[in-house]
Amino acid sequence: MNVFSVLMAAVAPGISLLAYFYLKDRYETEPIHLVGKLFLCGVLLVIPAMVLQNSFMQEIGGDNHFTFAFFISGGLEEFLKWFVVYHLIYRHDSFDEPYDGIVYAVAVSLGFATLENILYAFANGISMSSLLMRALLPVSGHALFGVMMGYYLGKAKFMRSQERKYLLASLFLPILWHGAFDYILLVAANNWIWFMLPFMTLLWIRTLWKVDRANDRSPLRVVRGEEEFKIG
What's a GO biological-process term for it (predicted)? Predict the structure, then answer.
């Protein structure tokens, strides 16, 4: 495969998943330039994340699978993504319904996953089988962790009485799931598929349920319903 083909193959899964979750917004899609900005921020996070991970591995080592999975890999990556979404979009006027948190968190997560995929492709080469495997596992994994992050950010913003609790959930639950994902791959190196298949199935089921729940809680649902009633 030539350079352009490899690049397109590495980018396609992230863009496809972003489009999927973007279009799942039932009531008011987000400004595309803002989604693109968050996606680019996710891309830009990869290099500092790699630098910090290498520093931590030199300081504390990466031999302990639990430490690597939950702190050096999952913990650091999800914290950086959460930090960007919280500081750039949480108070933004465009974040005006619970599902918006999902869109923006997924955009950052898939920006991160896309550059990771590109670096992997150029470092290791890419085949149809490896492309499919990475689309089903690390790329979709980042998207699903982003849905979880965004879902609880949406709850935090629109349930102010429990804002602190849901903000903590928006950070620590993605870390927990991301860490578990990495831990399975590290510990079950030879038979990981038997653990990863039910893990990803459960994660997808929970994700789709959260997508529906976030849409159902949109304040725009009532407004649109009233408009349709008047028109009818």
Answer: proteolysis
